[in-house]
Amino acid sequence: MALALDPRIQRVWRTPDCLQFGVEQPLLVLDDVSAADERMLAALACGVTREGLQLLAERAGAPPGAAAALLKRVAPVLTRDDGSEGQDERPPGRPPLVVLDAAGPTASQLAVMLTDAGAEVRGGLAWDDPALDRAEAAVIVGSYAIEPQRSARWLRRDIPHLAVVFGDAGVTVGPWVRPGAAPCLRCVDLHRTTADPAWPVMATQLHTLPPPGEDAITSTIVAARAAALVLAGVGAARGRPALPPPVGVSWRLVRDRTDKGSADGSDARWGGADWVSAAWEPHPECGCLGLPP
Ligand SMILES: [Zn+2]
């Protein structure tokens, strides 16, 4: 098993014998770095076995135990090449497949961002397309709400999905739904119905409208947030630590209505692009988490 310094952590020399890991948020500062240590660190930067490092230390004239001591010191900034990163079911080298259940500017931006990050992106797939069997995530873009039939399909196929919903007062990204493990989009819709019993009737009139205010700036901001969440969800945030996105949380970008521009809101300005989060609980009438319906 190869030992290696985490390539995502920037290294910088503070003095000729003091090495810092991480610049703006230092993770480790190594003092008294000897010439032998420096050679071992160079090997660790490329990846080396424990035995190889030991041999290198001996050839560099390091005292006994120097390799073990250095490994102990740099433990917080090591990564192990044991294939533990990423999804465990995906064959090595195959990019994660993200499906876009969406069309329009936000979907186009998402496709560019996800592809740039190393994901495979497909859109416009028929529901019986075999490619869906290996989909690791889906993004659904809708107007005012996601139609229950659309979200139910992803739920039934057990594919994690993210909602992006444009409204006339803002855009909501999330929640990230992990089927069977977190509140689903129907839960969100049921909570909305609890707050306003007329909501289902209104929603059916709004689902098929074009997303309001989906201009270039808005779609880019929204796509960036959605892409980051999805990449974290599929463990493919290349070059960055990939913590899974929180479930049961949505983020809303509220449109600043002080600028009363065009009727569809496309001239409105965003109030500094601040996102406001909201937490969602499973709805007792949904049953998506095995709760009694
Ligand atoms: Zn639910």
Task: Walk me through what this model shows.
It is elongated, with a radius of gyration of 24 Å. The protein has 293 residues and is an alpha/beta fold. The protein has helices at residues 35-46, 50-59, 66-74, 105-116, 148-156, 185-195, 199-206, 216-233; strands at 3-5, 11-15, 18-21, 28-30, 78-80, 97-101, 120-123, 135-143, 161-166, 170-177, 249-256, 269-279. Mean pLDDT is 87; it is low at 82-88 and 259-268. It folds into two domains: 3-80, Outer Surface Protein A, domain 3; 97-279, 3-Layer(aba) Sandwich (Rossmann fold), CATH 3.40.50. The protein has eight helices and twelve strands. The strands form three sheets. The chain has a seven-stranded mixed beta sheet with strand order 7-6-8-9-10-11-12, sandwiched between helices. It has a three-stranded antiparallel beta sheet with strand order 2-3-4, with no helix packed on it. It has a two-stranded antiparallel sheet with strand order 1-5. Helices cover 30% and strands 24% of the residues. β8 (135-143), α5 and β9 (161-166) form a beta-alpha-beta unit. The site of zinc ion (ZN) has 8 residues, from α6.
